[in-house]
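Recall that a protein's primary structure is simply its ordered list of amino acids. Everything else, from secondary elements to tertiary packing, is in principle encoded there. The following example makes that idea concrete.
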Amino acid sequence: MKKLKNEAELLKKALVIGEKYAINRGYKSFSATNSAKDKVESLYRLLVNDKLIQPLPIDNEDQPNMKHKLALWIAKQLPYRHALLG
């Protein structure tokens, strides 16, 4: 897994956009007590379920790989030459 430039910022953006997507799909928003780990896993599973991202192999389904997948997803959604794409 090759780390993306600005991956941490891309992940933050993915969490914000992903939460808005989940709310539009009928899910309630995350509470302040939800950990980032829970948010990452929930959004990853929602996007896989909706076939917006390819699922990871079962043996590679861990937090770093899920975070990377979310960062890749949002990087593909951003317009060309966006500041986060570096």
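The chain has a mean pLDDT of 91. The two ends are 19 Å apart (CA to CA).
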